[in-house]
Specification:
With about 270 residues, the protein is of the alpha+beta class. The chain folds into 2 domains: about 160 residues, no CATH class; about 100 residues, Immunoglobulin-like. The chain contains 7 helices and 14 strands.
C-alpha cells in the first residue's frame, strides 16, 4: 500500500478510536517520578511520555513530558524524528514534536513506568520537540488531535500546581504598570487565538493571567533562589519592570482587558 494511503487509513482509524475522552486508571504499583522515566497511560490507543525536565517551587514539582506514540506512520515526519523501542518489548515508538506539563501526583498515580532513558536520549527528544514545526498535513492534523486529547491533563496540572503554590505564599510584590502599556497591547485588542491560553511556562518562570471586571493582572512565579537578584520583565520587546526581586510572586497590573492573551507565550520574557 502506498505510504499516503497508509497514512490516511491510519488517521481515520485513530480518529475513530480516540473520539472518547481518556479514562484514567490508577497504576497498581506507583513509583516515584524521575527525569528520564518512560511512562504510559493505559488508553486506547496508549499514549507514552518521557519525563524530560523537572520544575520545583517550594516542595511542589511539575514535570515537562515529551509525547510518543505507537502510530509510526502518523508520527514519523523525517529522518530526524526519534524512534524508541520499549524495553523488553518489540513495540516501537515515535516521538511527537510537542510536550505537555504534568504534576507530580498525576504522573505517579496514572502513568505506569515502563523504562528509563539515558540523558543523551532525553536531550535528543527535547531538542526535537522544541525545534520541529508541526506540518500542515494529515500527519500534522493527527498530532494536533493528540495535543487536543491531552490538553485537559496539561491545563489541570498547571492550574493545580498554581493552587498549591498559593498555599505557600505571603504577600506578593506588586508592580503598577504605566498607562502606556495600552499602546503596546493595541494590536491585540480584537485578536482571538484558536485556543485561548491563560497559563504560560517560560524558561525560568510560570505565569498566569487573572481577568478582573475592567482589567487583567499578570501573575508571575519565579524560583525562590531569584529573590534578592535583579530581574527585568519584557513584553513584546519593551521593558516594563527592572529591579530587585523581593518576593517569588510578582503581580503586574493593570493590563488592558483583551479577548485573549495567548500572544504572551511568545512575547513575555523574564531576565535575571
Amino acid at each position: 500500500m502506498p505510504l499516503e494511503d497508509q497514512i490516511k487509513k491510519d488517521f481515520e482509524l485513530y480518529r475513530t478510536i480516540s473520539s472518547e475522552e481518556i479514562e484514567l486508571l490508577p497504576v497498581k504499583n506507583p513509583q516515584p517520578v524521575k527525569v528520564g522515566d518512560l511512562r504510559v497511560i493505559q488508553a486506547m490507543p496508549p499514549v507514552y511520555f518521557v519525563i524530560v525536565e523537572e520544575m520545583s517551587f517550594y516542595q511542589e514539582k511539575l514535570y515537562k513530558a515529551v509525547v510518543l506514540t505507537e502510530e509510526i506512520s502518523l508520527g514519523w515526519l523525517s529522518k530526524e524524528t526519534p524512534l524508541l523501542r520499549i524495553p523488553e518489548s518489540k513495540t516501537l515508538l515515535v516521538a511527537l514534536p510537542f510536550w505537555i506539563y504534568l504534576e507530580d501526583l498525576f504522573v505517579s498515580k496514572f502513568l505506569k513506568k515502563i523504562g528509563t532513558l539515558k540523558m543523551e536520549d532525553i536531550e535528543k527528544l527535547l531538542s526535537y520537540a522544541e525545534k520541529t514545526n508541526i506540518p500542515k498535513t494529515l500527519q500534522g492534523e493527527y498530532i494536533r488531535l493528540v495535543m487536543q486529547r491531552l490538553a485537559p491533563f496539561n491545563t489541570a496540572s498547571l492550574l493545580n500546581y498554581l493552587e498549591k503554590l498559593e498555599e505557600y505564599e505571603e504577600s506578593p510584590q506588586i508592580i503598577k504598570l504605566s498607562p502606556s502599556i495600552e499602546e503596546t497591547f493595541k494590536e491585540y485588542c480584537f485578536q482571538k487565538a484558536a485556543s485561548s491560553k491563560e497559563v504560560f511556562k517560560g524558561k525560568n518562570f510560570l505565569a498566569l493571567i487573572e481577568k478582573l471586571q475592567s482589567y487583567a493582572r499578570l501573575i508571575i512565579y519565579l524560583p525562590q533562589e531569584f529573590i534578592g537578584k535583579n530581574v527585568s520583565i519584557w513584553i513584546k520587546g519593551q521593558k516594563f519592570f527592572e529591579g530587585e526581586l523581593k518576593k517569588d510572586k510578582l503581580i503586574l497590573e493593570p493590563l488592558p482587558a483583551l479577548l485573549d492573551y495567548s500572544f504572551l507565550e511568545e512575547e513575555l520574557d523574564v531576565q535575571v
